[in-house]
Amino acid sequence: MAAPGGLGRCVAAFWLALAFDALGLAVLLAGVFADVFFSDLLIYAGGIGIFLSLVWWVFWYAGNLEVPPEELRDDVGLAPPKGRGDSLLRGLVHGLSLRLSSAFAPAPRSRAAAADLELQRAGGPRGRPADPSRIC
Predict the structure, then answer these.
(1) Nearest to 1 by CA among 58, 68, 59, 56
(2) What span, in angstroms and rounded, lies between the C-alpha atoms of 17 and 53?
(3) CA distance 123 to 26
(4) CA atoms of 26 and 57, how far apart (whole Å)
(5) Angle between the N-to-C axes of helices 11-33 and 39-63, in degrees from 0 to 180, rounded to the nearest 10
(6) Contact, 68 vs 28, CB < 8 A?
(7) How far is it, in rounded angstroms, from Cα 60 to Cα 13?
(8) I need a labelling partner for 37 at 20 to 30 A (CA). Which of 20, 65, 93, 107 fits?
(9) pLDDT of 97
(10) How are the residues of the chain apportioned to helix, strand and coil, as percentages rounded to the nearest 5?
(11) How far apart (Å, rounded) are the C-alpha atoms in residues 136 and 123?
């Protein structure tokens, strides 16, 4: 679905493409019509600016393509997996993910331990408010 403004979902890419086009055209025309010794540089720079705007136009166009979800699932004509036919691969990937998550995750804490840690950071023991005159 398109955005209400009529520019689609990638408004930033649209405005960048227009800016590159305008700036590239201005530099190109300045190189053609201005009587300066570096007019060749301006002509080439303007052409490069217009060419680089093509990148932003492609981003804008590709960002506004709408593909139905059923086409996203299967884009090569193969039937979706029946049942849990790929359960071996899913199991291996899930096991690897759990191992990596547990290796890099901090040690689990209970709620009471987390509350004690917060109170220690605040400077007061459990059940008693922190001393306001104490800075560190």
Answers:
(1) 68
(2) 5
(3) 63
(4) 18
(5) 160
(6) no
(7) 5
(8) 20
(9) 84
(10) 60, 0, 40
(11) 8
pLDDT tens, residue by residue, 35-84: 999 999 999 999 999 999 999 999 999 988 887 777 766 666 666 556 55
Half-sphere exposure (Cβ direction) of 27: Cα atoms closer than 13 Å: 19
Distance of CA 43 to the CA centre of its chain: 35
Taking residues 116-129, what's their average pLDDT?
A: 59
CA distances (Å), origin 32, targets 19, 35, 46, 121: 20, 8, 10, 68
Placement of tokens 């590709």 in the chain? 62
Predicted pLDDT at 66: 84
The structure tokens listed for 29 are: 């025309």
Q: Which is nearest to 18 in space by CA: 64, 62, 54, 61?
A: 54
Residue 83 tokens read as: 């049942």
- What is the C-alpha separation between 46 and 20, in angstroms, rounded? 9
Tokens of 91: 């199991």
Q: DSSP label at 60?
A: H
pLDDT band at 29 (very low <50, low <70, confident <90, very high): very high
